[in-house]
Write a structure and sequence with these properties.
Elements: H1 2-43, H2 52-80, H3 90-121, H4 126-129, H5 134-153, H6 155-158, E1 160-164, E2 167-171, H7 175-214, H8 223-266, H9 273-290, H10 297-304, H11 306-328, H12 331-346, H13 350-362
Antiparallel strand pairs: 1-2
């Protein structure tokens, strides 16, 4: 009787997980692809691309796209259909082991770098603010990627398909290595970035409050400096909201990961079949929610950043203009317009060459 109830519970939980996984996957794939592609377009525009924080947002968006199609998609396939290509293909097994964990960790750590950059920018100390540069952001990004592919990517060298009890698994046979890797990933890949982004977020808020308290009213005539200051404020607001939501989404997944790692691997705690089924269900559900971090960035930026919305509006206007031009203008007119533009760029008439000379001599 107990075994029947346990098997029924397992079947029900798997069925629920299957349908929830379908629903969440569609949302993550559609909204994640759309949002991250628009992020990449907007943060490479002239108005934003020279800002260090914008560069971090751009890298986060690229990392999120890779995470959606490499981690989220195959995680859903393995969970819902119980089909894991890495179990039967040694090449995919090693690629999966090399890419999966670094991509998950980098998605959080890039936000940590962005939080650190905004902490520097919001400082009342001018010397600290000067350290927030585009060159430093590029160096930090490259160093972080290299570091995490070194400390997590070595799994791709060791892992390979093994046959255990007539079943093939893409895994590592050494239990000591599995314990070490799980603890490393839980602490360095999940817990530490959540703590650091929360710390830098709080410090940034304190810096902003300190500036507002100590600020002296000054008449600033430089319009450019006003715009830059406003842009930094908007980027800080966008980041703080992203940090808040990321922390709230990630904490439950970090907790279940820590519990599994320390209770099952270190303490060797044994669970009944029903307990294992419940833990498996909760772990996969929280993992799906945690992977939503790779989707939400664009929608947070749209709701909280006025400058971001302006650039988004310009992108849509430019895109619609191209579409309407391509759809409604005849092909001959389009070719004529293109050839005229090309001629105007590459050919200068003698009268146009003489005109600036006459104007300058008259002045």
């Amino acid at each position: 009787m107990t075994s029947n109830s346990t098997s029924n519970l397992d079947e029900h939980l798997n069925q629920i997980l299957f349908w929830i996984g379908h629903f969440i996957l569609i949302i993550q794939m559609v909204f994640g692809t759309f949002g991250n592609l628009l992020n990449i377009i907007i943060f490479t525009r002239r108005a934003l691309r020279n800002n260090s924080c914008s560069m971090y947002f751009l890298i986060v968006s690229i990392s999120n796209l890779l995470e959606i199609y490499i981690v989220t998609l195959f995680n859903h396939i393995s969970t819902s259909w119980n089909w894991i290509p890495a179990n039967t293909n040694i090449v995919w097994c090693k690629i999966n082991g090399f890419l999966t964990y670094p991509l998950i960790a980098l998605g959080l750590w890039f936000i940590v770098l962005c939080s650190f950059d905004r902490y520097l920018t919001s400082s009342h100390n001018a010397n600290i603010r000067k350290k927030s540069t585009l060159s430093l952001a590029k160096k930090m990004t490259f160093s972080t990627m290299l570091f995490f592919f070194i400390i997590f990517g070595h799994l791709g060298i060791i892992i390979r398909p093994f046959t255990i009890d007539d079943e093939t698994y893409c895994t590592v046979l050494s239990s000591t290595y599995i314990i070490f890797y799980n603890i490393l990933f839980v602490i360095v890949g999940n817990v530490l970035p959540i703590i650091l982004m929360a710390i830098f977020g709080i410090l940034t808020v304190l810096n902003i409050r300190k500036i507002h308290i100590n600020v002296v009213p000054l008449q600033i005539n430089n319009i450019t400096s006003k715009r830059i200051h406003s842009k930094d404020q908007q980027l800080i607001r966008m980041l703080l909201f992203q940090v808040l939501i990321t922390v709230l989404i990630s904490i439950p997944y970090c907790c279940i990961n820590m519990y599994q790692t320390f209770a099952q691997l270190l303490l060797r705690q044994h669970f009944s079949s029903s307990e294992s089924a419940i833990i498996y269900f909760i772990d996969n559900l929280l993992a799906m929610i945690h992977l939503t971090n790779s989707v939400i960035g664009f929608y947070i930026y749209t709701l909280t950043g006025h400058k971001f919305r302006e650039e988004l509006k310009r992108c849509f206007q430019y895109g619609l203009k191209i579409i309407f031009t391509a759809c409604y203008l005849p092909l001959k007119i389009q070719q004529a317009l293109f050839s005229n533009k090309h001629q105007r760029r590459n050919h200068i008439h003698p009268i146009e060459q003489q005109q600036p000379v006459v104007l300058t001599t008259a002045v």
